Amino acid sequence: MTQTAAPHAPDGSDASPAPDRPRRRLLSTTAVAVACGLLGFLLVTQLRAAEDLGAQLEGEREEDLATILANLSAETDRLQSESTDLRLTLLAFEESAEQDGLALRNLERRLEDFSILAGVVAAEGEGIVLTVEDPRGQLAPEHLVDTVQELRDAGAEAIDVNGVRLIVSSAFTVRNDRLLVDGTPATPPYRIAAVGPAETMARALAIPNGVVDTLHRAGDGVIASVDSRAQLTVPPRGEAKPFVFGEPVTPVGAD
Amino acid sequence: MIPLLALVAGALLGLIVQPTVPPLLAPYLPVAVIASLDAIFGAARARLDGTFSERVFLVSFFTNVVLAVFLVFLGDQLGAGQELSTAVLFVFGVRIFQNLAAVRRHLFRA
What is the per-residue pLDDT across B4-33, written as a single tens digit (0 to 9) for each? Predict the structure, then answer.
């Protein structure tokens, strides 16, 4: 294309005839400008495309996507197994907590029973009230003892005589012709309240030659009447006397 | 100067238009960009060497891009897409470095 054998490509400013030069310059400049513009355009587009993750994924090759999918699947599996482990641990903890709760409830129930037995708490429930009139004071402690025995045999759980709750150490005595319940004077009419199976206790008291009959025969004017109640409250004993001579053999709460 | 202005103008146009890359072309765009960058730097070096020819520049610009994209496409079809893409980028990267070194020698005489 050129007269001289140039080692490099012609640069367009020497070899062309003069009238063509400005046109060629314009053409070449325009071409260069277009190429650079294109580069700028592509550059910006690519930079923007690289930021968007969705587009990144779209642009990934199949194999890359397959690798990404495999990684994510493995991660999902790992997380799921971890979740299962944690759930199992939580379950184990809940079970053990429940066991503890059960043990606690058992202890609480035993405490309730023992409290009632010991007379430390008031007891309420169905029961009977035995009222004994003794205008001439002819009853002896034995009569009261027999009555209480009969009631206990019939299933009484808590008994009080004239407001004095009977406990393990209770005793009926006499002093100065007066009946005493645990040292507290009791004056007739005697009111014996017993919480327990009302029907059983009432029947037990009323059998022929039973408590009621015996009381009636104990003296004239002695009248015993039994009254069944659906709801009855027996008061607690104030302070329990501490044991001095006795020691527990098994620890409290052990089965 | 004009090329620089044109570059900036093209970049601005890209920012304004904000085209979305069709997913089909997405893997080839980075390669095309690097290929055209190589042509630009080659032209800069030629200009400083005094051997610049706009014909050479234009031809190399477009053939670079077309060849690079074609190579990567071929690699995808053959199943070695990732590797060929890496190789193409590597080669262009080497050439860019060489051209930049020459430019540096011109500018800083070092």
Answer: 888 888 888 888 888 877 777 877 888 899
Which residues of A, range 41-60, sit inside 8 Å of B by Cβ? 41-46, 48-50, 55, 58-60
Q: Tokens 């319940």 label which residue?
A: A181
Q: What is the pLDDT of residues A123-166, one digit of tens each?
A: 899 999 999 998 888 888 888 899 999 999 999 999 999 989 99
Say yes or no to pLDDT of A173 above 60. Answer: yes
Q: Where are the beta strands (DSSP E) in chain A?
A: 123-133, 158-161, 164-165, 172-175, 178-181, 184-186, 190-195, 223-234
In this complex, the residue of A33, A41, A61 whose CB is nearest that of residue B82 is A61
Structural domain harbouring A138: 124-234
Q: Which residue of B has its CA nearest to A15?
A: B53
Chain B environment of A34 (Cβ under 8 Å): 6
**Is the residue at A200 inside a domain?**
yes
Count: domains in chain A = 1
